[in-house]
Amino acid sequence: MLPYPSGHGAHAEFVLAPARALVHKPPGLDHVQAGALPLASLTAWQALVERAQIRAGQRVLIHGAAGGVGHLAVQIARDRGAVVIGTASAAKHDYLREIGAHELLDYRTTAFDAELSDVDVVLDTVGGEVTNRSLTVLRPGGTLVTLMPTGREVLVDEARRHGIRVVGMLADADRGGMQAVSDMVRRGALRPKLDRVFPMSAAAQAHTRAESGDAFGKVVLVPD
């Protein structure tokens, strides 16, 4: 598996990569499933384990819990012993409970900031007003990890006044993180969910689907 060593990824049937960036595909996954893992799982791993340093017993809120990064983050947080809270539409709640979420909120009908408090870590995969509202549910000393860069400087200043740490990130190529993900798959603690699989010739449609906010799991491109 390849944790996008070039830094930004590409759509190609073949790619050159340094050996230090590769890990073996875990047994039990086919190549399409394995293709769903590297960037999304590494993002979730680095956000929760490396940046937020989650610990057993902490309350972790994951926005977009059924999305490409979110559903993997749920499984990683559960495996680390956290109490996992997720936002997702109601139709996706049964699946999220199956993979380890303890508490779920339907973002279409429930304002999460009216229901939650004293959260230790928030993983924001949504952005916009959700990012700012997330500050209000964190305890002093809590951590907000956001994948959305817009307005981050203002957010950091506001968070500092409330004793909250804000971390913005994009995933970095990291063989150690990918090996940790692979090990989770091997012991049955992590499994990617495929939303839709598109041929390379339909890359535009794949991007439209991934950016729609409706994807349930990971969108994957395969060679024609």
Question: Could you characterize the architecture of this molecule?
Answer:
With 224 residues, the protein is an alpha/beta fold. The protein contains nine helices and eight strands. It has helices spanning 31-35, 38-51, 70-79, 93-98, 112-115, 129-134, 152-161, 175-186, 203-211, and strands at residues 59-62, 83-87, 103-105, 119-124, 138-146, 165-168, 194-199, 218-222. Strand 5, helix 7 and strand 6 form a beta-alpha-beta unit. The longest helix is centred in the N-terminal third of the chain and has 14 residues, at 38-51. The chain is globular and about 50 Å long. The mean pLDDT is 90.
- Tell me the number of helical segments per DSSP (H or I, 4 or more residues long): 9
The biggest sheet, with number of strands, parallel, antiparallel or mixed sense and barrel status, is: 6 strands, parallel
Q: What fraction of residues sit in β-strands?
A: 15-25%
Strand order of the largest sheet: 3-2-1-4-5-6
H-E order? HHEHEHEHEHEHEHEHE
* Class of secondary structure makeup: alpha/beta
Calculate the terminal CA-CA distance, rounded to whole Å: 20 Å
Shape: globular
What is the helical fraction, as a range of percent?
25-40%
Q: How many strand units?
A: 8
Compute the CA-based radius of gyration: 17 Å
Query: What is the averaged pLDDT score?
Result: 90
Unreliable spans: none
